[in-house]
Amino acid sequence: MSTLPPGPSGLPVAGSTLSFVRDPFSTYERWAEEYGDIVATNIAGRTFVMVAHPEHIERILVTDQQHYGKGSFQRDQLGDIVGDGLLLSEGEFWHEQRNRLQPEFFREQLTQYATMMVDETRARADNWTSGETITLNSELQHLTLAIMARTLFGFDIEDAEGQFANTARTISERFNLSHVSTYLAAWIPTPRNRRYRRAMNNLDTVIYDVIEARRAQDDSPNDLLATLIAAVDDPETDLTDETLRDEIATVILGGHDTAALAMTYTLTALARHPDAEAEVRAELDEVLGDDDPTVTDLPALPRLDAAVKEAMRLHPPAYTLFRESNRPMKIGEYDVPEGATLTIPQWVVHHDSRWFESPWEYQPDRWTDEFEASLPEYAYFPFCGGKRHCIGMRYGLMETKLVVATLLQRFRFDFQLPELSFAAALTLQPAEPVSVRVTTV
User: Could you tell me the pTM of the whole model?
Assistant: First the structure.
């Protein structure tokens, strides 16, 4: 006899859709508190199973990964944006693309990127005046776009930066889980969907313009874009410009926003915890002095590392991930039907008191070697895990640390909001602009 996981029955037909739309974060927390680590419910007509225990998560992402694909839920939501890019592609095609692109994120390449990251950060900070109030999350989104454009695609985004940032923001907002329209087909002409369609057209125009401009160059840099174009132009492959477009969209939309959020949440957390901030600043002074940070400095900055780790635990930019079972499966003592959508929320696991004492408090000092060794493998997974872990994990962590270090060398950040609140879009977005006053140090 099949034993389904426990969970809320919700309303007839709608199931738990309305409570999830109203507040997905509280809903996740309530499910975990009331029903445990494995919870089944109905959302928008789909069987959803929340899995929130490290042991089960490891089975899904590693041990039994072949039985859990990306699935129709993610394809319905994201297929328009990233097509067959790395995020959604599967099987042999995914393996080939992953192997093709992975070298661009090896240590040798990252070392070359580091100087560009610091240069772009200093250029952005040059626009700030001591005593002024800035919208930190917006500034950092512009910065990470500029860094990504220069390091991975070899072009200066300055002229199109504002348009590109607005386009990316509009696309992300289309997937705010707290809006009913998110669960409607993209072709339905709601105001949000119309804005989304315009943004998608803008995205495609920018990407194809970048491809055309690169092909017209006589001497182009050896970067991610060059690797992609060479693969498409190779007669031995079946890749097309549409493949190229999908991978560029995946990297841009998947990379710049999560990094900007990690930076935002690290800087605001430090601003609200003066003791932790003082420790990081003292470490930067001791190791760097007045020098710019380099990639070789990062191992000597453990307090900076802990500050970033703790911010990504407390406010994980990727707050959940999804899989779909491609056959009936057993998770723990429960049966999961074929075609169920699994939601695996970092939001719940990262705030679980079984793994993290005082889980809702920012405590970077918790990140000792002994503590990390004691953690279950998937109690902390800000970059997903298994063979499909984020391809840009090293790039994103290095970028976040270099940017935070560079900015702290120049400014103090006075957080202007009483506290952060969040919106569940493609990533963990601030519900309102993050205003900070910057003061030179």
Answer: 0.93
